[in-house]
Amino acid sequence: MAKEYRNAIRSRKQIRLAFANLLAEKGSINKISVKEIVERADISKSTFYAHYTDLDALVKEIVVEMINSITDAISNANVDSNFLVEEQLNHIFDMLKEHDEEYKLILKCSYPKEFIDMYREKLSFYIDKYPNMALYETNNNEERKAVIHFITAGLIETVLLYYNGKIKVTLDELRNIIENFLRRAAN
Asked: In angstroms, rounded to a whole number, what is the distance separating the alpha carbons of residues 8 and 10?
């Protein structure tokens, strides 16, 4: 039983890595087939279909996993603290680090626009949900929207720049840079 479980985990990782590599090479999900993924992952089609109903299910799993990890960190935030306190930032960056190579490949292609929009929407929702999370308080709704957009766009763009090799630091260094900025901004 334990061996079956390890094999299933290994198969899923192989499938996801093969997909990420093909996406990085081809630049678009529309140019990738299940046949290419199974060949690259060195698995059978039945192994692929044991884990995913189709290519869209694979993509959806990756997108939902990334979004849920970020929103879980934010939704568990201490409402008396400032935006993205150290604990939540650590959770986000731990998730990014765990899937670093895979996300780096996926986010280098032209595909991620809709997935970035989903991220932005979820992140904005949670920042707006907690009144103390946007670095300063305001009663002006439009001003609050502008601040929330600024924070979410900045965080998302910074992570994208890292994954595209335009910010040449490690993920841990990027985490420290953002934490230090937020600490200074909150004071």
From this structure: 5
- Regarding whether 95 and 20 lie in a shared domain, the answer is no
| Of residues 11 and 63, more confidently modeled | 11
Residues 31 and 106 in one domain: no
By residue range, what is the domain housing residue 74?
56-186
What pLDDT does 95 receive?
75
CATH number reported for the structural domain that contains residue 23 in this entry: 1.10.10.60
Do both 68 and 45 map to the same domain?
no
- State the DSSP string of 151-184: HHHHHHHHHHHHHTTSS-S-HHHHHHHHHHHHHH
Backbone angles phi, psi at 147, to 5 degrees: -65, -45
Total structural domains within the chain: 2
Beta-strand ranges (E) seen in the chain are none
Spatial distance between the Cα atoms of 63 and 17, rounded to a whole number of angstroms: 14
Q: Within a 13 Å sphere around the CA of 75, how many CA atoms are in the beta-carbon half?
A: 8
pTM (2 d.p.) = 0.59
CA dihedral 93, 126, 80, 91 (to 10 degrees): -20
